[in-house]
Design goal:
It contains 27 helices and six strands. By secondary structure, the protein is mainly alpha-helical. The longest helix has 49 residues. The protein starts with 27 loop residues before the first helix and ends with a helix. The N terminus is likely disordered.
Length: 763
């Protein structure tokens, strides 16, 4: 937000409709009046959305930590799913998987209670804080002439009049608005009596603007969320990890500190933005004397060392007087898009996606790719609600943050934030499947720390470039739509673009995070390619390309008309009008569209014929080592099935191999000297064939080959049939119906779910 103002659009872009903020010689008070009364959301509102999202993500993870994982994933409910009676094989498998899916869905519902509990506690904090503040400040009702100054500062004398209180301690803050919408009040310091009438009225007018903009209650809720996250989430979890250290402890503590710092920085950005909004609203009051707000701000003391240090690290809750005066002189300055806002939006979106995707997947356990697409849609709307609206505002006022290379740079930071946010989530703290000995669908391996470096760099490059292209698309569409500060269609058009942005981001976001999850799980190449080899991916990317054409198509008729007329256009700027050449096609958007078209064409071709040439990269090992049972946990993710067996289901369900070092493609292999060959069938002892631990370990390290290869599938089915377990015997019967045909999805899912329960509860 503290960027240098510049309302002159970049010369390589078409002119936008003149707005109150970009017309030469416009009175700053008129511009401020237009910005404050605009139907577009104010910067305070969009920054508050950031804080709400990150607080909700942190609360949901803490709820899962305490109420699901801390309760051993509900053993009574899980074990109750084991069938006690027989029946047809299909019925046994359907009852078992359906019951486990219901338990996972209930766990997901409990996790959602975390954000709701945070909201309730924040509301209680707000209600209690109203009266506690009066008690802490020793405030008393005002009975002096200060009430007359408040009357003079009211924009509407016939409107509601806030109650005025005077505090007897913590003197020096001058005044503060508080209370509720129905019962507002202002608490002033006792030294406010000594201020001249002009400054006292300006001070009170500033606080009245806070009440009129309705940011008092929202900011108090945000402050309460910060303290609740600190005292009810971070500190208890930190103490629990310090008292009982775990393998995930260090990584989890670091990530919790990152989330808490993000919340604090976002809260401070909200507090600074609301001061600028209140300054503009107070200065825009037609009853206010000209320059009164600036005189009041200028009378404030220069920031001391402590405030300068806090401002340097982004933790200052109040902007400096110099910054506030700069915004008053150029109100459009406050509608820029700071680099921190773009980076923080990406960071919050990454945190939100990792938690939300696992919860949405609980609703559709066999349709992981669809679940990630739905999560991409929801997260895309969250991103658009912050940065798309911010770029729309910047274009409307002609801010230089929406011109030239600045949007591309901000978009790149948005993509970088997505990558960092995905790895800052508590669920990316380590190998949950190894350290918690569970393959619970809510405990997935998401950390890219140990993944192959080329794949991680490729993921980083894709998300950074994608963020830059999204920023370029958003600003181009805002110019083509002639974004304006006010007008009957300004808010409606911005809302339509926000909805469209979420739709266009759904598949790219969902696909990227699914690729990141597969990379973290070291999935084999054919499983990773199965994400692209699907109608979901082709349809989604094609939709994104069609949406990318909207700014170009929208601007062609107007550009063509202006070009036929004069070939140039006069663009209003801060220093007068500038002659700008209007071109039909701009090279950067066109190159981006061509690149996207190539990707779509390649994806469509791959979906049509590429699947025929996919060779399974899984290690076709039907081997097992008895000692591995004691050293490693299961590597499967239940609630889904291997893509090689059933396209469209969860591609991370089946691991490539046992624990080992990744090769150049990222697949884990098992050295032959560590994994001897499985003895021939005639040499396999009855003890081996009847031990559930050995057979389940064989499933977790066997790779996709034990299901896709007919001979290996027959051997696997015979091993499952030799166990004294109703579910695994039913899976064996289903697999043996047609060993050479398509793999039965239900049998594979049930086998991994049953082995997960065995490893976790030894039953």
């Amino acid at each position: 937000m503290n960027t240098t103002p510049d309302a002159t659009p970049d010369s390589g872009l078409p002119p936008t409709a003149p707005s109150p903020a970009s017309s030469p010689g416009t009175d700053p008070r008129a511009v401020a009046r237009a910005l404050v009364s605009s139907p577009l959301p104010l910067p305070t509102t969009t920054r508050l959305a950031l804080l709400v999202l990150v607080a909700g993500a942190g609360a949901s993870f803490a709820t899962w930590w305490w109420l699901v994982l801390g309760q051993d994933s509900w053993p009574a409910a899980q074990l109750a799913c084991l069938p006690a009676a027989g029946g047809s094989s299909d019925a046994v498998l359907a009852r078992f998987t359906g019951c486990v899916d219901d338990v996972r869905l209930a766990q997901a519902a409990v996790v959602l209670c975390g954000p709701l509990a945070l909201l309730v506690l924040a509301l209680l904090h707000r209600a209690a804080g109203i009266r506690l503040d009066l008690w802490w400040w020793r405030a008393r009702p005002d009975d002096s002439s200060l009430g007359d100054r408040l009357t003079a500062a009211l924009a509407d004398p016939d409107g509601p009049r806030p109650a005025l209180w005077v505090r007897g301690r913590r003197v020096g803050v001058q005044a503060r608005a508080s209370g509720t919408r129905r019962r507002p009040w202002i608490v002033a310091d006792s030294n406010a009596f000594n201020l001249p009438d002009r400054q006292a009225e300006a001070m009170l007018r500033h606080e009245l603007t806070h009440l009129r903009l309705r940011d008092v209650g929202r900011v108090r809720l945000a402050t309460g969320a910060w303290w609740i996250l600190l005292t009810a989430v971070v500190l208890p979890v930190g103490v629990a990890l310090l008292v009982k250290p775990a393998l995930l402890g260090a990584g989890l503590l670091v990530r919790m500190a990152i989330v808490l710092l993000t919340v604090r920085l976002t809260l401070c950005a909200v507090l600074r933005a609301r001061e600028h909004d209140a300054d503009l609203g107070a200065d825009a009051d037609p009853r206010a004397p000209r320059g009164a707000a600036a005189d009041h701000i200028g009378s404030d003391r220069p920031p001391g060392l402590r405030r300068r240090l806090l401002r340097a690290v982004g933790l200052a809750s109040h902007p400096t007087p110099a910054t506030r005066l700069d915004v008053l002189a150029d109100p459009a300055r406050s509608w820029g898009v700071s680099p921190f806002e773009s980076l923080a939006t990406g960071l919050v979106a990454g945190l939100l996606f990792t938690d939300l995707a696992l919860l949405v997947a609980a609703l559709m356990p066999t349709r992981t790719q669809l679940a990630y697409t739905v999560t991409g849609l929801l997260t895309g709307w969250a991103i658009a609600g912050v940065v798309t609206v911010a770029w729309w505002r910047a274009v409307a006022v002609g801010h230089r943050d929406a011109a030239g290379r600045r949007p591309v740079q901000a978009g790149a930071l948005l993509g970088l934030g997505l990558l960092v946010g995905s790895q800052s989530s508590g669920r990316a703290a380590g190998d949950w499947l190894r350290d918690t000995r569970t393959a619970d669908g809510l405990a997935s391996e998401l950390s890219l720390v140990g993944a192959p470096l080329p794949q991680v760099l490729a993921l980083a490059a894709v998300v950074v470039i994608g963020g830059a292209l999204f920023a370029l698309w958003t600003t181009s569409l805002a110019r083509a739509a002639r974004a304006s500060v006010s007008g009957p269609r300004s808010a409606a058009l911005c809302t339509a673009v926000l909805v469209l942005s979420g739709v266009l981001l759904a598949v790219p976001l969902g696909g990227w995070f699914l690729f990141a999850r597969l990379t973290a799980a070291r999935a084999v190449a054919d499983i990773r390619w199965s994400v692209i080899d699907s109608p979901w991916w082709v349809t989604g990317v094609a939709l994104s390309v069609v949406g990318a054409l909207v700014p170009l198509v929208w601007s062609i008729p107007r550009s063509a008309g202006r070009t036929r007329a004069t070939g140039t256009a006069a663009v209003p700027g801060r220093h007068g009008e500038t002659a700008v050449t209007v071109s039909r096609l701009r090279p950067v958007p066109v190159l981006a569209l061509v690149l996207s078209g190539v990707l779509v064409t390649a994806g469509a071709g791959w979906a049509a014929i590429g699947g025929r040439f996919v060779q399974s990269s899984a290690v076709q090992s039907s081997t097992v080592q008895s000692s591995a049972v004691q050293s490693s946990g299961p590597r499967s993710t239940p609630g889904s099935a291997p893509s090689a067996a059933a396209p469209g289901t969860d591609p991370s369900a089946v691991p490539s191999t046992a624990t080992g070092s990744p090769d150049a493609s990222g697949d884990r292999t098992v050295p032959l000297d560590q994994l001897p060959l499985l003895p021939p069938k005639e040499e396999q002892t009855e003890e081996f064939r009847s031990d559930p631990a050995l057979v389940c370990r064989y499933l977790t390290i066997g790779g996709t080959g034990i299901w896709t290869d007919p001979q290996s599938r027959r051997e696997t089915a015979e091993l499952l049939g030799g166990l004294d377990d109703t579910v695994l015997r039913a899976a064996s019967a289903v697999l043996l119906r047609d060993p050479t045909g398509p793999v039965d999805n239900e049998a594979v899912i049930a086998s991994f779910l049953r082995c997960d329960l065995y490893f976790r509860y030894h039953r």
